[in-house]
Amino acid sequence: MVTLVFYNLKGGVGKTAAAVNLAYLAAKEGKQTLVWDLDPQGSASFYLSVSPGTKNESKKILLQEMEITDAVKPSAYEHLSVIPADLSARYADVLLNEMKQFKKKFATLINSFKKEYDLLIIDCPPGLSVLHEAIFYSADWILMPNIPTTLSIRSFETVVQYFKDNDLNIENIKCFFSMVDHRKNLHHETMNEFYKDKLFLKNYIPYLSDIEKMGIHQAPLETYAASSYAAQCFREVWKEIKRNCL
After folding, report:
1. Residue 5 near residue 34, CB atoms below 8 Å
2. Contact residues for 164 (Cβ-Cβ < 8 A; gap 6+)
3. Which of 68, 99, 139, 193 is the most exposed place for a label (fewest CB within 10 A)?
């Protein structure tokens, strides 16, 4: 099983849309795929039309008061399952901070799925905290969507420095541009600068209304706009991720 974490220090960069659409593409290929929604907003769960289970389920999972495998729910799509988020996920940092060997305990949760799934995709909340430290310790790859703007790139550089300061492997970070607006010269200039240094994947996700409509359809883009340019871009990003990470 390979664990892919979709993460960014800041929100609003297209992280959840990428996690859901790429999870769907993996499942469509026959990979047994599990999406673990760890963002208290529960957007990944919403996009996949999967409701939270028992009350405070995320909190119970982290406290090991329930088996994480019991929290898995099927989605409407073959080979794609979900651990939905609820508001108790907002306590994750406090709960983990009070645990001894919290990184190893979190890794144990992830390892619960190694025999059953080919791919675990974690939709991670924005920020940089104890929860993120545990996730970085356990994940195979950190996938960071970045809008090609100054603030978004600054966030990327902050995360890279965090990895260096905490002896984490920077090579486990794979970045791609997201919400790219071709009308903006700044986006083109930023992308060209970082492509030159080979810091980002070649393929990117555009800023298009078809992606925003995921909230209306409560479904992955491929299910309602498979022939769109946006869907094509997700397919190309997925191909590149497979070459680099799987």
Report:
1. no
2. 170
3. 193
